[in-house]
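writing this on my phone so excuse typos. first protein, seq and then structure
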Amino acid sequence: MNSFLRLTAVCALLTAVTTFLLWLLPRYYPEMSTEMDRAMLHVNLWYIGRQWVSFIHIFLALMAYLGAAILIWQRSRGLALAGFMWFLLWGFTELLGVSVLIFAVNNTWRRAYPQADEEMRTTLQQNIDLVMQWWDALFFLLLVFFLLGTLFYGLGTWRGKGLEKMISILFLLGVPLTVFITISGYTQVVWPGMIAGAIYPVLQPVSRGLLGLWIWSSGGSDKEFNQKKAFSE
């Protein structure tokens, strides 16, 4: 168990990097004022790179959340199980959306757009618009899943001390952050998005990094971990 927890801790530390990249890379996107500009995103390394970073990030994050669930299980099996279930749903939803963006929208439709005639361009653009509307709805759903997973993990670590208490606070701070992102993305209210945009690049990477340190330090040796588990039972 110790070696597996160490693996999940490393995954959590790597998500600190991928989380920051997910925030940073869009800053290098070109200006997109026309349909052709958007169609050419399929050859933009910053844009395509972000899609692949997002794809890899989800697997790393799920491993990290599994490691956290194992530790939370010692105190609250219900919160650990429910929290990881919400994160699984988040991960599946985002993987589905990102995969469609990579392979259908960019690798197929946008790739074909520059060489297509006007009639075909109209069809391709309709396909892209439809998928983007579908992704917009899915993104709302994954935000809800992420909010619930964050809330349950925050409650599950609340009774901890030291680094675990800090992890709990950071998880719980992720709840209003997710609410602000949701409000900004799906209403006409602007100020929550401004707050989220300022907090996200600091809070989320730091939270993931400290999560990795907590998992690493809390796993202990196999003997120590089993003793902790037996005591909690």
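second protein below, same order as before
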Amino acid sequence: MDKVLHPVIGKPLQLVIMVVVTILVRYLLVRLFDRLVRRAMSIRHRDNGRPETPEAVIEFKRKEQRADSISQLLSSVITFAVWSISLITILANVGINVAPILASAGVVGVALGFGAQTLVKDFLAGIFMIIEDQYGINDLVDVGPVVGVVEDVGLRVTRLRDLSGVVWYVRNGEILRVANRSQGWTMAIVDVPVSYDTDLNKVRSIIEKVADEMHNDPASQDLIIDRPEYAGVESMSGEAVVVRITARALPDKQVVAGREIRERIKNAFDSNGVSVPVVLRLPQQGPKP
């Protein structure tokens, strides 16, 4: 009786156990490598204590984003490797001779190498982009056809969400250049027009005072890295002189920092009697019928 029931009960039970073990091994390996990557990325942060300078905060956030990207990449590799080994083991367990399969793997690999060159190109490009830290999860990047926030980095494609909310899937091998707007810092540039006859020394003094107040304001620490600078006269015409203010802003805070600087300068100009020229614009004429 045992000889009759063993093939019926034993094989299915073994297969179920192998599948469960595969899932468990894959889960443990993913968790292990994820913790190792995060420990390696954050060890300097733990040794030096909580980062206080804006540069240290940016560096620490960058490490976290890179850890997320590397963890996702390793998860894809581990999943493929574990399930491939498990599939071969299951086939051998059910009595299928896997030797010819393994022997022909080299021939199939060569054939696939010619037929799937694009796929291999995408895989290699994805690996090198993560290793070189070209971009990571939550980075705002410009990859040519689209500008958006990185939501997922896979072995073959990168998923982006553009500023209008549309999701884009870009093949890694097709990304020829990357403009990352989330690494380090961005430059907030503000051009302010003043009347042509305004005393520029007075304007500079007001802007310098605004820059000092903004630099010392704790609420601005989430926007700018250092003190805004008066860059000088950018252009002038018969109606106005345009002066420029620059400030190093935190990643993704360039627009918000520029708005904050304009608001503060406008309030300071109003308090000190500095007028901004009004340029009259004629209404645009529509096409003639």
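The first strand starts at residue 140 and ends at 142. thats all i got for now
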